[in-house]
Automatic annotation (TrEMBL):
<feature type="domain" description="Ysc84 actin-binding">
    <location>
        <begin position="150"/>
        <end position="271"/>
    </location>
</feature>
<protein>
    <recommendedName>
        <fullName>Ysc84 actin-binding domain-containing protein</fullName>
    </recommendedName>
</protein>
<dbReference type="Pfam" id="PF04366">
    <property type="entry name" value="Ysc84"/>
</dbReference>
<dbReference type="InterPro" id="IPR051702">
    <property type="entry name" value="SH3_domain_YSC84-like"/>
</dbReference>
<dbReference type="InterPro" id="IPR007461">
    <property type="entry name" value="Ysc84_actin-binding"/>
</dbReference>
<dbReference type="GO" id="GO:0035091">
    <property type="term" value="F:phosphatidylinositol binding"/>
</dbReference>
Length: 272
């Protein structure tokens, strides 16, 4: 007997004497349309795709870690210094030696618009500032860049950063800065002074009346001490800002270079 069409009976196994697997080998298998995918194939990339992915990831990481270009940093310091001067000129609420009166007789000025607690003693970004010098005709020079370091700042009552301004009242004080001999030996105490709440003024003990300092601190402020601070030049910022290698003396004393970007700051210092 032959099997009916469409049926698979056991008779052919007995008739032909073959094993079941031999007969089943001629039987069509039903295979699923979806092939199993190994886990590693899900994340597999072609060589080209991998290289593109690697390039994008590298650029993204570089974008997060690249520091600010020196020219951009220099311009930002000058602009923030102008803001510091504007604040000091507006806030004079108490009697005594004021910022305006000291500025009027200044021979030079050091402005550090962003001095952070962790930056002092390290220098560079966070503790950088500028020096400007006034000539015999009363005109302010273009800025030379410096950093405040080599010491520490003791902040009180939660203040974590400050804006510092040193008014240089003599030729000797200016020369000390330019010759990298400006150092605040011992402790220079800053106490609440002539600028009202949140502002301080004091005369440095290391150089007598040659330098008068003013400070603006964030938050409630009762005073802080600057121990062993020194000022060092930022040659990288000087070069970037003036597009050539130049020394502080060539900038502030010899007037060999200029940058119109600093004119608003110079005008703010010149105005009463």
């Amino acid at each position: 007997m032959f099997p009916r069409p469409g049926r698979l009976d056991a008779a052919p196994l007995e008739t032909c004497g073959l094993e079941r697997r031999a007969v089943c080998s001629h039987t069509p298998r039903l295979r699923p349309n979806i092939r199993p995918v190994l886990p590693w194939r899900v994340l597999a990339l072609s060589r080209r795709s991998f290289l593109i992915f690697l390039l994008v990831a590298t650029l993204a990481m570089n974008g997060c870690t690249t520091s600010v270009p020196p020219h951009t940093e220099a311009e930002a310091i000058v602009e923030r210094a102008g803001t510091t001067i504007d604040i000091l000129k507006r806030r004079e609420a108490e009697p005594g030696p004021t910022f305006r009166s000291n500025l009027r007789n200044a021979r030079g000025i050091l402005i550090f618009p962003d001095v952070f607690k962790a930056a002092v003693g390290i220098g560079g970004q966070g503790g950088s500032g500028i020096l400007l010098v006034r000539d015999s005709r009363g005109r302010w020079s273009y800025p030379a860049f410096y950093t405040l370091g080599g010491g520490s700042v003791g902040f009180q009552l939660g203040a974590t950063s400050a804006q510092l301004v040193f008014i240089l009242r003599s030729e000797g004080a200016v020369r000390a800065v330019i010759r990298d001999q400006f150092a605040l030996g011992g402790d220079v105490q800053w106490t609440a002074g002539s600028l009202g709440s949140g502002y301080t003024a004091a005369t440095t003990t290391s150089v007598g009346a040659d330098i008068v300092g003013f400070a603006i601190a964030e938050g409630l402020f009762a005073g802080f001490a600057l121990q062993g601070g020194s000022v060092g030049r930022r040659n990288d910022l000087n070069t970037a800002y003036y597009a050539r290698k130049v020394t502080p003396a060539e900038i502030v004393l010899e007037n060999r270079v200029f940058n119109l970007h600093a004119d608003p700051l110079r005008q703010a210092l010149a105005s009463e």
